[in-house]
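Section 5: illustrative case.
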């Protein structure tokens, strides 16, 4: 995979390497009930994986020249999270982005907003898409605020369709169009794979 680095004011986004695997594995699976999972779709259980299974899954695309579908978030010289994207429907160019900050020490400090802003700009710059969205739930107000600060708008609320610890929550869809992003005047680097 072509090494890619996007630098913000306090965070950087970069591609994964084999050296990152032990750190990532510990951030995701290092404890039985991680704090980050209480906000990142906790109604879906975190399926445990052995380290070998983790490496097999996360190492599969390390030698690809395709646009990366995830980048690590670094702050203060350490990995604190990850940004991702996936296709809801690639034929219609419907893309959803995601972000997770694993360490609570980096919550509510603007790190996620900066990372999501860089990522959304990168996706618009490198993919032929008209919109970037996120899907979250009403139990994660920090994610909703982060998306708002980037410029996303509420596009849909499915009421009481997420059930967690005896309480119903809403599913939240937010997004922004290319025109809304371009109106912000942010420039993000293009991705050019190695030959």
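Designed sequence:
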């Amino acid at each position: 995979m072509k090494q890619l680095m996007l630098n913000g004011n306090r965070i950087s986004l970069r591609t994964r390497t084999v050296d990152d695997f032990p750190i990532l594995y510990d951030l995701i699976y290092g404890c039985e009930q991680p704090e980050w999972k209480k906000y990142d779709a906790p109604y879906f259980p975190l399926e445990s994986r052995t380290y070998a299974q983790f490496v097999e899954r996360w190492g599969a695309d390390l030698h690809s020249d395709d646009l990366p579908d995830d980048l690590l978030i670094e702050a203060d010289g350490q990995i604190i999270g990850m940004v991702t994207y996936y296709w809801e429907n690639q034929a219609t160019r419907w893309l959803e982005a995601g972000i997770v900050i694993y360490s609570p020490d980096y919550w509510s400090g603007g790190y996620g907003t900066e990372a999501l802003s860089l990522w959304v700009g990168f996706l618009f710059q490198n993919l032929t898409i008209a919109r970037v969205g996120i899907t979250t739930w009403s139990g994660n107000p920090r994610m909703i605020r982060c998306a708002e600060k980037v410029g996303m708008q509420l596009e849909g609320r499915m009421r009481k369709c997420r059930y967690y610890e005896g309480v119903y929550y809403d599913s939240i869809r937010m997004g922004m169009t290319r025109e809304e992003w371009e109106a912000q005047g942010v420039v993000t680097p293009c991705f050019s794979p190695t030959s």
